[in-house]
Amino acid sequence: MAGLLDDLRKEADKLDRRLTFMEVCGTHTHSVARAGLRRLMPANVRLISGPGCPVCVTPVDYLDRALALAVLPDTVVCTFGDLMRVPSSTVSLEHARAEGARVEIVYSPRDALQMARDNSGLRVVFLAVGFETTVPTIAGALVEAEADEVPNFLLLPGNKTMPEVMKVLVDDPDLEVDGFLLPGHVSVITGWKLFDFLADDFGVSGVVAGFMPTDVVQGVLALVRQAADERPGIGNVYGRVVTADGNRHAREIVDRYFEPSDEIWRGFGTVPGSGLTLRPEFSHRDATQITVDLPEPFEPAGCRCGDVLRGVIDPPECSLFDAGCDPDTPVGACMVSSEGTCAAWYRHERWASEVGS
């Protein structure tokens, strides 16, 4: 690690400008914070976080719909645990469950499918939230549901894909990003070649990195070297796991059941082509077809989670950070999720002397 940091400083010394690199993976966010890597960077290298937490970018109206479904008769909503405490326009799923709503925590979509098998009189709705990494497991559950004719297993589609939102980031006039630490988990499925558009169309570098502190430093070092050579490209320092083309079989299963859709991201609004919705032939699995009454979407007052997700501010620049918003009493999604940037800063970096140091 020390040798890598020395190499990084030597390469950064060759540059006459400051570089800003963004990671777009919640696991990278916490690796950087936990290891104190932000403070170990050369003075002219800044690390910022982007929309790498799928729970955090899930919009409030999605949660409103999930809550509305959970109070319907003969309906149970199944979700991963991180989503339970995220505020909706009214209350969280956790609070609603305490008041009698049917909400269950599961560890995989197949757990929800099994619940549907075991309870034929219930509609079981799985909250399909996540990036490219989780969609194959959801598609796998659909394969089983169709083959075994389990009619009461449904999804509330909310999955998102990374490329389109990254195009928004590089086009954002409020944000100057010189390169991206590309998400390792996502790249296992997609392959690193999916991100060629960054260099080809925008002249911005990207490097796929693993999640150990040494992996992250290797990724930053590769980005600095590309900047020094003035040759933007897409690199991969996670070759032990990630290949150029990824997992084709997983992508084929996903494509069988899902198609691209316009999707709302917290902090970004609607991003065309950045979501995944069920294909028309599987609309019988789509819980958005169920009619429910929804409130007007309402975001918590003062919360700047959206700005954090866009990389426009670091968490301490939000007036609520550690001043009414913390992991025990979260106001916004970025403090709730285990992959959230605010949660990472609170646990590991809130005593840093300088914001963004």
List the helices and strands and how they pair.
Blueprint: H1 2-13, E1 19-23, H2 26-35, H3 37-40, E2 45-49, H4 54-57, H5 60-70, E3 75-79, H6 93-98, E4 103-105, H7 109-118, E5 123-128, H8 135-147, E6 153-157, H9 162-171, E7 179-182, H10 184-190, H11 196-202, E8 205-208, H12 213-229, E9 234-236, H13 248-257, E10 258-265, E11 269-278, H14 305-309, H15 333-336, H16 341-348
Parallel strand pairs: 1-2, 1-7, 3-4, 3-5, 5-6, 7-8, 8-9
Antiparallel strand pairs: 10-11
Helix pairs in contact: 1-12, 2-16, 8-13
Low confidence ranges: 353-357
N-C termini distance: 19 Å
**Rg from C-alpha positions?**
21 Å
Percent strand: 15-25%
Mean pLDDT: 92
Order of helices and strands: HEHHEHHEHEHEHEHEHHEHEHEEHHH
CATH top level assignment of the largest domain: Alpha Beta
CATH homologous superfamily assignment of the largest domain: HypD, alpha/beta domain 2
Number of contiguous helices: 16
- Strand line-up across the major sheet: 2-1-7-8-9
Reported by name, the CATH topology of the largest domain is: Rossmann fold
> How would you classify the quaternary structure?
single chain
Count structural domains. 3
Backbone shape: globular
